[in-house]
Amino acid sequence: MARGWIKPGNQIEGECDPAPGKGARATVRVATAKMNQKLANVLRAFSIELPLYAVLMATYVLLVLHFLGGWLFQLFRGERKIYAIAALALIVCQGFVLEILSRALLGLIKGKSEK
Questions:
Q1: String of b and e for 42-67 (b: at least 16 CB within 10 Å)?
Q2: So where are the chain's domains?
């Protein structure tokens, strides 16, 4: 017998016995159905999050350019070190704010869809 194979009748630790009278195929079908359901949930969440992030990012970029564009350009031209610090601070703040907003919006969406 090839190395790594299990002899018939031997069980791996943690392996579940198939339901009595149903056999191993029924167990595989149940496990496959559960995995397909989890995959569907992940894909549904991803399909909601991706456009949401796109809209939030576009809004963020437009707001920063509108309100801080002139100031950032002056910093870039005159004080590169301060510009670098300001840019990093904007990146970190953007991450926090977008994460908070997207979690809140996804919570609202999930709450409405579960009712």
A1: eeeeeebeeebeeebeeebeeeeeee
A2: 50-114
Q: Environment class of residue 114 by beta-carbon count within 10 Å: exposed (0-12), middle (13-18) or buried (19+)? A: exposed
Alpha helices in 1-115 (DSSP H): 23-78, 80-114
pLDDT at 3: 52
Does the pLDDT at position 88 exceed 50?
yes
Q: Which of 110, 115, 108, 91 has the alpha carbon at shortest distance from 45?
A: 110
Q: What per-residue confidence (pLDDT) applies to 46? A: 85
Q: How far apart are CA 48 and CA 102, in angstroms?
A: 10
